[in-house]
Design goal:
Chain lengths: 345, 287
């Protein structure tokens, strides 16, 4: 119980820190970095739901991220839809497409699924890159409006945008939290651990995998749409495999299949990237091996490692009284023997 | 008609390169059951090593190709030892992520050492010949011929030699191979050596026609995946046939459909195949 209260306290402290961040740090550059890493976190939660909890590695998520971003851009600039309607439509469109792709892709398993989604991601990238008239091709897509006002709320300043993104991040974390501790979440984990066993238990794996995939695509497209409205410039690069790799790095450093993982990993890696900024294009020289070493020697990530450590300590504490009792008994009995010896002597 | 035959020849050239890459990929898949996403990086490294051997060390083209095959083969062995061997008992997710890590590392490495520019590889076989009214460069003939020779050699190696037979045995059943006294570690290293050399050869042959740049492996590796799914994961004849099928459909598609979208053809094929047959064509049941 104490652990649970402790965790609540932690969450409250972190949330308060996130809320107070713009007041504590007035440097607009850091604010920018924070906002963008919150956007990545949302995307990583999407990936985590499917790769971490359901056990399928989708390599198309950078594509879905870009699709959400481009859909928002095209809807607002080319079609002229009001911002928030476009925002909802962009997410819905991407999610719907994700559902169609998922319906087909999820018939495949393991390697085939990874290769299939890799190809889907690449097709999305190629379409964005080649379809000049719609996406602007390699020149990029400019002129995306900032989020429109909702009543008295205006999102024109960086601080306001920070809170907007934070709001969505909290929402995503809340949904994830509720989901993971629900029966549905348990079902996903069951599928991850053994799909055949889950099937034998009467779980409709296809239906559950699809639901998990669709929700995961939704989170990712939400992140994409936020990215478009925050950065307001899009290039085909955001659909590229290296973005996918970034998501994976965030997720693995933080801890795949944990709730805190995406937050911890994204913050840490973004912070490190800022320190290594002089490397620019060569940062993969460092991050490539880091990821590979991590997966070999520390596959649970920071949050995963912490959870394991805690579980071990709890186990030790559970065993402690018994061990103490046993030790005490041993001491008593040997003492008794000693006394007997003394009497005899 | 002439255009058609010219395109068929182009398809044959491109298909030869694809087949060589896909062969390496399918060998590794057959042995270790990992989709080696880093195979495209080996291809890219092959192109760069050949280029460097030619321009910096002044080696002739043929010798440079051999050097590059040896170097990239060793790189493959290193990859197996340092990354895939420690991960042999890990969940399949881990292999894939590690492979992506290697891929991006090698790409950044190439960019760091050789720069991001597109470079041309000189070839002594740039002359144009015309046979029966068809014009093609000797380099293209070289690609087709050497690919065919290598495939025959590989076939003989796998069927007629002991090491080749042990590779096949391990692909069929790892534990069984171990039981009859095959050193599976050695075989795995051997396979990576072969796979890396094949990738280097393919890259060295194709580079004079295309260009050498850090991202040159991306499309090739994706297409190689399409090919081995087309031909059956781990199947060697499948990789060869699949490579040529893809080469032909691309060169014909580029002429008669759209040049801009010719790269999508491969992925469209893949999506269609996996939609109809989720375990790939020629999938073994109960694998």
């Amino acid at each position: 119980m104490a652990v649970f209260a402790n965790r609540r306290l932690w969450i409250a402290v972190l949330a308060a820190l996130a809320l107070a961040f713009p007041l504590l740090v007035t440097n607009s550059y850091y604010l920018h970095i924070m906002t963008i890493s919150f956007i990545w976190m949302i995307a990583v939660y999407g990936l985590n739901l499917f790769a971490g909890y359901t056990g399928y590695l989708s390599l198309a998520h950078a594509g879905f991220f870009a699709m959400g971003a481009y859909a928002l851009g095209i809807l607002t600039v080319k079609v002229g839809v009001p911002f928030w309607l476009a925002f909802v439509l962009a997410c819905l469109f991407t999610t719907l497409l994700g559902a169609v792709i998922g319906l087909v892709a999820l018939r495949t398993k393991e390697h085939f699924f990874a290769i299939y989604t890799l190809c889907v991601g690449y097709i999305i990238y190629l379409v964005i890159d080649k379809w000049d008239s719609l996406t602007g091709g390699v020149r990029g897509f400019i002129g995306i409006p900032a989020p429109a006002d909702i009543g008295p709320l205006s999102f024109q300043t960086p601080v306001a945008q920070y809170y907007l993104v934070l709001f969505f991040l909290f929402a995503v974390i809340f949904v994830m939290y509720r989901l993971v501790y629900s029966l549905t979440g348990r079902t996903y984990i069951a599928i991850r651990n053994s799909e055949e066993l889950a099937l034998t238990l009467g779980i409709s794996t296809m239906k559950n995998k699809l639901a998990s995939f669709v929700l995961s695509v939704f989170f990712t497209s939400l992140a994409g749409a936020l990215y478009a409205s925050f950065i307001r410039f899009l290039g085909p690069d955001i659909a590229y495999i290296s973005v996918m790799f970034d998501f994976l790095t965030y997720l693995l450093v933080g801890g795949i299949g944990t709730l805190a993982g995406p937050v911890v990993g994204t913050l840490l890696v973004t912070f490190l990237s800022q320190q290594l900024q002089f490397l620019q294009d060569y940062r993969m020289l460092i991050f490539g091996p880091i990821l590979t070493l991590l997966i070999i020697f520390y596959p649970h990530g920071i949050a995963g490692g912490f959870i394991r450590y805690q579980a071990k300590r709890k186990e030790a504490r559970r065993l402690e009284p018994e061990a103490n009792r046993a030790a005490a008994e041993l001491a008593v009995s040997s003492q008794g023997r000693g006394e007997r010896h003394a009497e005899e002597g | 008609m002439e255009l058609f035959i010219q395109q068929l020849l182009n398809g044959l050239t491109v298909g030869s390169v694809y087949s060589l890459v896909a062969l390496g990929l399918t060998l590794v898949y057959g042995i270790l059951h990992i989709p080696n996403f880093a195979h495209g990086a080996l291809y890219m490294m092959g192109g760069y090593v050949t280029l460097t051997a030619m321009t910096k060390a002044g080696l002739p083209y043929g010798l440079a190709v051999v050097v590059s095959m040896a170097a990239v083969g060793m790189l493959g062995v290193l990859m197996e030892r340092l990354v895939f061997y420690p991960l042999r008992d890990a969940p399949p997710l881990h292999d894939k992520i590690a492979a992506i890590g290697i891929l991006l590392f090698l790409e950044a490495f190439a960019q760091f050492v050789w720069g991001a520019d597109y470079q041309t590889m000189p070839t002594p076989y740039g002359d144009v010949v015309s046979i029966f009214g068809l014009t093609l460069t000797i380099q293209r003939i070289l690609i087709i011929a050497s690919a065919v020779i290598i495939m025959i050699l590989l076939y003989l190696f796998l069927k007629k030699t002991f090491i080749g037979a042990s590779i096949i045995a391990m692909a069929q059943n790892r534990e069984g191979a171990n039981l009859v006294g095959i050193n599976t570690n050695k075989v795995a290293m051997m396979t990576f050596l072969l796979s890396g050399s094949l990738a280097a050869l393919a890259a060295s042959l194709a580079s004079p026609i295309n260009l050498v740049f850090p991202g040159m492996g991306h499309l090739v590796i994706l297409k190689a995946f399409v090919i081995i799914i087309l031909g059956g994961m781990g199947s060697i004849p499948g990789a060869i046939v699949g490579g040529y099928i893809l080469g032909f459909s691309e060169s014909l598609g580029a002429t008669y459909v759209s040049n801009d979208y010719k790269d999508i053809i491969a992925f469209a094929i893949l999506v269609i195949i996996l939609t109809v047959k989720p375990n790939g064509l020629f999938a073994k049941e109960g694998h």
